[in-house]
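Final report, closing paragraph on structural work. Over the funding period we assembled a curated collection of sequence-structure pairs, and we close with a single example.
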Amino acid sequence: MKLTFLGATHEVTGSCTLIEVGGAYGLVDFGMEQGSDTFVNKDIPVEAERIDFVLLTHAHIDHSGNLPLLYKNGFRGPIFATSATCHLCEIMLRDCAYIQQSDAEWKSRKAQRAGGEAVEPIYDLADAEGAISRLRPCDYNKQIQVGENVVVRFTDAGHLMGSASIEVWLTENGETKKVVFSGDIGNLNQPIIKNPQYVTEADYVVTESTYGDRNHEKGKMDNVNLLAANIQRVLDRGGNLVIPAFAVGRTQEMLYFIREIKLRGLVKGHDGFPVYVDSPMANDATGIFLQCDRDFFDDETRALLDSGINPLVFDGLHVSVSSEESRLINSNPEPKVIISASGMCDAGRIRHHLKHNLWRKESMILFVGYQAVGTTGRAIHDGMKKIKLFGEEVAVNAEINYLPGKSGHADKEGLLKWINSFEKKPEMVFVNHGDDQVCQAYAKCLEEEYGYTTYAPYSGTVFDLETNAFIDMPEGIPVSKKTAKQARNLAVLDTLIAACERLLNVARSCKSIPNKEISKFAGQVNSLADKWSSWVKKQ
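Its predicted structure, as stored:
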């Protein structure tokens, strides 16, 4: 009965933890790293096809983005998540696959012009569809048997529509241990969704620490009036207000606020000012939000829906789907609000809007969410004077601003409220999903100020739940540019080795098929081996 910590260890993104119990294996999240990569992440120590199940806390790509890769490498088990998370993953994983394919095509063209080899995407749309086919929707607050020795329950984490903390009961040798994975704990009083639900019992806890060393600005944030003031200022001087926003969650919050701004007439002299949502995924996600069971919504949103009011739609709202519609936004000189993804400005149509507006003094870039270290958004937020976009340096002349307190993550106070809701202190609290110094600071705070036993594991740490003891406690391996390239090369090689191991398993299962078919299979394998052996010898 073991936990192996693999991703989001002393880092904010790339969540992944391996569960081992009674000969079965499961993952909690399998996310993609975003922003700068600080430490080397160990590979999953078992073949993908040996993983029996995945538990998914929510749909954000840093928690779900590598599920298509898992499918590509042979995983065929169920992926358990709330129904809202399953619906959101359908659009998010397809979008992520499209980005992988587009990036690979661009890199291939560039490499081939220089006489190099084509670049393969990490995974493609078929792999995303395969992962989507494994999704299994679950209700909040109901125990679910996901394996012979594993029972789980999803509780509302208040971070994103459908987000969850996951209670996991593991049984082996007649002994049961309960582990609670926090997922991403939500900020209080967010629009549309409910506040976090608190869990009260656990033997072990794995908690995030994104804001574990600081609090959001205090006092009730009047986001509607603050946003209205920014819109007023920019439209008055003839500029565009550009809001980089995550397609799922933050975009819908901004629409919720702008509907109220227009309803209350808070922006003067610009009646019917246009608002463009330029993100096909955001438009799809908005549709999913409105189709969710009403139990997912907070009281205010349910009251609007019960009154026949769509809380995310208003006069002057334009949605852009095609590339041509996206391009026309910036060719139109009318001052406007533009909401586009991705929220950290590293991909998506937001980069085109930055190219057209960063250099304009009359425009504003308004950040409304967390910007990870190493992202384009963080560079702009921190005062970089020039940003490279599409191979061109663009001067940062626009006003750079942020909406205070607009984070989907709980701050330190919120995290402490969540962990202190346990009636009895867990035997161990594992702190992850935070920058290196932050997760260490939060672990130290829990230990010294609140009396918890804590540890902030590095990738590869293995803990035995039965004996309450560490099996392996590796130090973190910092990523260098050389190390990062080696890691990418090893990841590609691991994919090849996994494919060969899968082929070997297929061969071992051929005992009952006719000799003629076995000979044909052997001939194809030998032909493939001869082809690649010849190529390798030439290198």
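Residues 149 and 171 are 5 Å apart (CA to CA). The two ends are 45 Å apart (CA to CA). We thank the funder for supporting this effort.
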